[in-house]
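Renewal narrative, Specific Aim 1. Our central claim is that a sequence can be written position by position from structural information alone. The example that follows is taken directly from our test logs and has not been curated for this report. It begins with the C-alpha coordinates describing the chain, in the order in which they were read.
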Protein backbone atom coordinates (compact mmCIF):
# COMPACT_ATOMS: atom_id res chain seq x y z
CA UNK A 1 0.00 0.00 0.00
CA UNK A 2 1.28 3.47 -0.88
CA UNK A 3 2.00 5.59 2.20
CA UNK A 4 0.03 8.83 2.34
CA UNK A 5 0.53 11.85 4.60
CA UNK A 6 -1.11 11.74 8.02
CA UNK A 7 -3.64 14.37 6.91
CA UNK A 8 -4.89 11.96 4.22
CA UNK A 9 -5.69 9.27 6.77
CA UNK A 10 -7.33 11.77 9.15
CA UNK A 11 -9.50 13.04 6.28
CA UNK A 12 -10.41 9.47 5.32
CA UNK A 13 -11.35 8.63 8.89
CA UNK A 14 -13.44 11.76 9.26
CA UNK A 15 -15.29 11.11 6.02
CA UNK A 16 -15.60 7.35 6.40
CA UNK A 17 -13.82 6.70 3.10
CA UNK A 18 -10.50 5.19 2.10
CA UNK A 19 -8.16 4.85 -0.86
CA UNK A 20 -6.62 7.09 -3.53
CA UNK A 21 -9.84 8.04 -5.32
CA UNK A 22 -11.39 11.19 -6.75
CA UNK A 23 -13.32 13.42 -4.34
CA UNK A 24 -17.08 13.31 -4.94
CA UNK A 25 -18.22 16.79 -6.02
CA UNK A 26 -21.51 16.34 -4.14
CA UNK A 27 -20.57 14.93 -0.72
CA UNK A 28 -16.74 15.14 -0.74
CA UNK A 29 -16.22 11.43 -0.10
CA UNK A 30 -12.91 10.05 -1.38
CA UNK A 31 -14.25 6.62 -2.31
CA UNK A 32 -15.79 5.90 -5.68
CA UNK A 33 -15.92 3.23 -8.32
CA UNK A 34 -15.31 3.55 -12.03
CA UNK A 35 -18.52 2.72 -13.92
CA UNK A 36 -17.20 3.28 -17.47
CA UNK A 37 -13.87 4.17 -19.14
CA UNK A 38 -13.47 5.35 -22.72
CA UNK A 39 -10.70 6.89 -24.74
CA UNK A 40 -11.59 10.14 -26.44
CA UNK A 41 -9.91 12.85 -28.50
CA UNK A 42 -8.15 10.33 -30.71
CA UNK A 43 -6.66 8.43 -27.75
CA UNK A 44 -5.14 11.48 -26.06
CA UNK A 45 -7.62 11.46 -23.16
CA UNK A 46 -9.34 8.82 -21.06
CA UNK A 47 -12.86 9.67 -19.91
CA UNK A 48 -13.97 7.91 -16.73
CA UNK A 49 -17.53 7.82 -15.43
CA UNK A 50 -17.44 7.41 -11.64
CA UNK A 51 -19.98 6.75 -8.91
CA UNK A 52 -19.56 7.78 -5.28
CA UNK A 53 -19.91 4.79 -2.97
CA UNK A 54 -21.41 6.95 -0.22
CA UNK A 55 -24.12 9.03 -1.92
CA UNK A 56 -24.38 7.34 -5.36
CA UNK A 57 -23.69 10.61 -7.27
CA UNK A 58 -22.20 10.02 -10.72
CA UNK A 59 -19.52 12.30 -12.16
CA UNK A 60 -17.01 12.34 -14.99
CA UNK A 61 -13.24 12.74 -14.82
CA UNK A 62 -10.69 13.05 -17.60
CA UNK A 63 -7.14 11.75 -17.60
CA UNK A 64 -4.59 13.07 -20.08
CA UNK A 65 -0.86 13.27 -20.62
CA UNK A 66 0.55 16.47 -19.24
CA UNK A 67 2.83 18.12 -21.75
CA UNK A 68 5.46 20.69 -20.96
CA UNK A 69 3.85 24.09 -21.23
CA UNK A 70 4.37 25.95 -24.49
CA UNK A 71 5.25 29.63 -24.52
CA UNK A 72 3.80 31.85 -27.25
CA UNK A 73 6.10 34.40 -28.89
CA UNK A 74 3.85 37.38 -29.55
CA UNK A 75 4.23 39.79 -32.50
CA UNK A 76 5.57 42.52 -30.24
CA UNK A 77 8.27 40.25 -28.76
CA UNK A 78 6.48 39.43 -25.51
CA UNK A 79 6.20 35.86 -24.30
CA UNK A 80 3.13 34.39 -22.60
CA UNK A 81 2.02 30.86 -21.70
CA UNK A 82 0.02 29.08 -24.40
CA UNK A 83 -3.66 29.10 -23.46
CA UNK A 84 -5.89 26.45 -24.97
CA UNK A 85 -8.81 28.40 -23.53
CA UNK A 86 -7.80 31.56 -25.39
CA UNK A 87 -7.56 29.60 -28.66
CA UNK A 88 -10.94 27.99 -27.94
CA UNK A 89 -12.53 31.39 -27.23
CA UNK A 90 -11.30 32.82 -30.54
CA UNK A 91 -12.50 29.84 -32.54
CA UNK A 92 -15.84 29.72 -30.71
CA UNK A 93 -16.37 33.42 -31.44
CA UNK A 94 -15.65 32.85 -35.14
CA UNK A 95 -18.11 29.93 -35.22
CA UNK A 96 -20.83 31.76 -33.28
CA UNK A 97 -24.28 31.40 -34.90
CA UNK A 98 -22.84 29.10 -37.56
CA UNK A 99 -24.02 25.52 -38.24
CA UNK A 100 -20.92 24.07 -36.56
CA UNK A 101 -21.26 21.52 -33.75
CA UNK A 102 -19.43 21.92 -30.47
CA UNK A 103 -17.85 18.52 -31.13
CA UNK A 104 -16.41 19.78 -34.43
CA UNK A 105 -15.03 22.89 -32.70
CA UNK A 106 -13.53 20.79 -29.90
CA UNK A 107 -11.93 18.42 -32.43
CA UNK A 108 -10.48 21.40 -34.33
CA UNK A 109 -8.99 22.85 -31.13
CA UNK A 110 -7.56 19.45 -30.23
CA UNK A 111 -5.94 19.08 -33.69
CA UNK A 112 -4.34 22.53 -33.49
CA UNK A 113 -3.10 21.94 -29.93
CA UNK A 114 -1.74 18.50 -30.77
CA UNK A 115 0.05 19.81 -33.87
CA UNK A 116 1.69 22.55 -31.79
CA UNK A 117 2.83 20.05 -29.17
CA UNK A 118 4.25 17.74 -31.84
CA UNK A 119 6.11 20.48 -33.74
CA UNK A 120 7.36 22.71 -30.91
CA UNK A 121 9.16 21.86 -27.69
CA UNK A 122 9.00 25.10 -25.77
CA UNK A 123 8.26 28.22 -27.80
CA UNK A 124 5.81 28.72 -30.65
CA UNK A 125 5.31 31.91 -32.68
CA UNK A 126 1.79 33.37 -32.40
CA UNK A 127 1.64 33.48 -36.22
CA UNK A 128 1.88 29.68 -36.36
CA UNK A 129 -1.08 29.27 -34.02
CA UNK A 130 -3.17 31.68 -36.09
CA UNK A 131 -2.20 29.99 -39.37
CA UNK A 132 -3.04 26.50 -38.05
CA UNK A 133 -6.39 27.72 -36.71
CA UNK A 134 -7.23 29.39 -40.04
CA UNK A 135 -6.32 26.26 -42.03
CA UNK A 136 -8.62 24.17 -39.87
CA UNK A 137 -11.43 26.75 -39.99
CA UNK A 138 -11.18 27.02 -43.79
CA UNK A 139 -12.03 23.31 -44.00
CA UNK A 140 -14.75 23.51 -41.36
CA UNK A 141 -16.71 26.68 -42.23
CA UNK A 142 -15.72 29.43 -44.64
CA UNK A 143 -17.67 32.18 -42.85
CA UNK A 144 -16.00 31.27 -39.55
CA UNK A 145 -12.67 31.29 -41.39
CA UNK A 146 -13.22 34.85 -42.70
CA UNK A 147 -14.33 36.02 -39.24
CA UNK A 148 -11.22 34.56 -37.61
CA UNK A 149 -8.97 35.90 -40.37
CA UNK A 150 -10.45 39.39 -39.97
CA UNK A 151 -9.32 39.52 -36.35
CA UNK A 152 -6.05 37.63 -36.81
CA UNK A 153 -4.98 39.69 -39.85
CA UNK A 154 -6.40 42.91 -38.38
CA UNK A 155 -8.69 43.90 -41.26
CA UNK A 156 -9.18 47.67 -41.34
CA UNK A 157 -11.36 48.23 -44.41
CA UNK A 158 -14.27 46.47 -46.12
CA UNK A 159 -11.93 45.85 -49.06
CA UNK A 160 -9.85 43.62 -46.79
CA UNK A 161 -12.88 41.35 -46.37
CA UNK A 162 -13.57 41.36 -50.10
CA UNK A 163 -9.97 40.43 -50.90
CA UNK A 164 -10.02 37.58 -48.41
CA UNK A 165 -13.28 36.20 -49.81
CA UNK A 166 -11.86 36.39 -53.35
CA UNK A 167 -8.72 34.58 -52.18
CA UNK A 168 -10.93 31.96 -50.54
CA UNK A 169 -13.01 31.51 -53.71
CA UNK A 170 -9.83 31.20 -55.79
CA UNK A 171 -8.53 28.37 -53.56
CA UNK A 172 -11.82 26.44 -53.51
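The sequence written for that structure reads:
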Amino acid sequence: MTPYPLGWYLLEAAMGCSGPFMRCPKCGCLEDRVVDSRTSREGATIRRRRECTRCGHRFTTYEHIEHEDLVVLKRDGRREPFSREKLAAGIAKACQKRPVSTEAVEALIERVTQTLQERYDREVPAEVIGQLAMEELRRLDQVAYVRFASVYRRFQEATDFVQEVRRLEGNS
